[in-house]
TrEMBL record:
This is TROVE domain-containing protein. It comes from the Bacteria. It is found in: Cytoplasm. SUPFAM superfamilies: TROVE domain-like (SSF140864), vWA-like (SSF53300). Coiled coil: none annotated. Belongs to the Ro 60 kDa family. The keyword RNA-binding applies. Residues 1-170 form the TROVE domain. InterPro entries: TROVE2, TROVE_dom, TROVE_dom_sf, vWA_Ro60, vWFA_dom_sf. Keywords: Cytoplasm, Metal-binding, Ribonucleoprotein, RNA-binding. It comes from Nocardioides panacisoli. The keyword Signal does not apply.
């Protein structure tokens, strides 16, 4: 909605503060008010078409009406809203295997241009796919019988959405925790830390012009889990997510020593702009602290490198030096984290 000016702005203010609608009140507000006052399906559907109302602008009672959702789809449901709201038309029987609005919805979900325009990150699509395929909502308790075609379309959209990712353009070393504890779900979302980290690694390997991935594994002949090392995580951006997960599962795992990526890059003489660690909640430092290892890498390489540590299920940890603007701790995980990582790497 465009921010109104002049009399329209005054009328908008009057509606917000006093609930009054004037001659210059924007049409969208007028349509919203009329929708709240209406009480029948035909009127709601007509208002959607006349004013271009979105589903959020309608009363809860309207959300359970097929005719209203037909009107919303005819007017155009935005890409991210479509992914979030798929259970509703599914429960209403609008997305059968044959007929209904299924082919139209499938075409929109997998449309590369729409995914790019909406800047939909593949991890957002993965969360939507896992939620929809599960057939139930963890938050509301609602259930539905997922459509096979829609489930498959979301799976395809995950890979198509790689083209919507804006890369940081930085030389990136991804260090991934491959331990058994990574199988726990994150932040009430229908994906595990293992799936999220593998998905992010695939995306960054596919979109960053210069990126490589390693896994936290055990040293040869190690006697404790803390005797960890890094080894190449041999996944390709051309692989499917399930294949990447199998590669990670096959690696022997050890502790997540957050100093190792900088030590590894120093020993291998790698030119790295951004170090990214993906783990659940088990982060720690070895003989030296990560900020010391990062400072040493910067000194030896001459690169003002950054370090990002993402503890996807953590409730609290401290790796970053608060006085160092090139270090970032991410505690927990949601769909905004991938963009945060990219923007921090770019220095925004």
């Amino acid at each position: 909605m465009r921010i109104p000016e002049g009399p329209a702005a005054q009328n908008t203010f009057d509606w917000i503060v006093r609930g009054s609608v004037g001659d210059r009140t924007p049409r969208l507000i007028e349509g919203f008010v009329r929708a709240q006052e209406a009480g029948d399906t035909a009127t709601w559907a007509a208002l959607v078409r006349e004013y271009g109302l979105s589903w959020e602008m309608l009363p809860d009672a309207a959300h359970g009406e097929v005719a209203v959702w037909d009107a919303l789809h005819d007017s155009g449901v935005p890409q991210t809203a479509l992914m979030r709201q798929l259970p509703r038309p599914t429960r209403l029987g609008m997305l059968p295997d044959i007929g209904g609005r299924t082919d139209e919805v499938v075409a929109q979900l997998t449309d590369p241009a729409r995914l790019r325009a909406a800047r939909v990150h593949p991890v957002n699509v993965l969360v939507a796919q896992r939620t929809y395929a599960s057939g139930h909502s963890a938050r509301s308790g609602a259930t539905w019988a997922p459509s096979r075609k829609v489930t498959d379309a979301l799976d395809a959209a995950f890979y198509t959405a790689f083209g919507a990712v804006k890369p940081s353009g930085k030389r990136t070393l991804l260090a991934v925790d491959v331990s058994g504890s990574m199988t726990q779900s994150i932040s009430g979302m229908p994906i595990s830390a293992r799936e999220a980290s593998a998905a992010l690694a695939l995306v960054q390997l596919a979109t960053e012009p210069s990126a490589t991935a390693v896994g936290f594994t055990s040293r040869y002949g190690a006697r404790t889990w803390r005797e960890s090392a890094l080894a190449p995580l041999r996944i390709s951006p051309r692989q499917r997510l399930d294949d990447a997960l199998r590669v990670a599962d096959a690696m022997p795992f050890a502790g997540t020593d957050c100093t190792l990526p900088m030590i590894y890059a120093t020993e291998k003489r790698l030119k790295i702009d951004t170090f990214v660690v993906y783990t659940d909640n088990e982060t720690w430092a070895g003989a030296i602290h990560p900020h010391q290892a990062l400072a040493e890498y910067r000194r030896r390489s001459g690169i003002d490198a950054k370090l990002i540590v993402v503890g996807m299920t953590a409730t609290g940890f401290s790796i970053a030096d608060p006085s160092d603007s090139g270090m970032l701790d991410v505690v927990g995980f949601d769909a905004a984290v991938p963009s945060l990582i990219t923007e921090f790497a770019r220095g925004l």
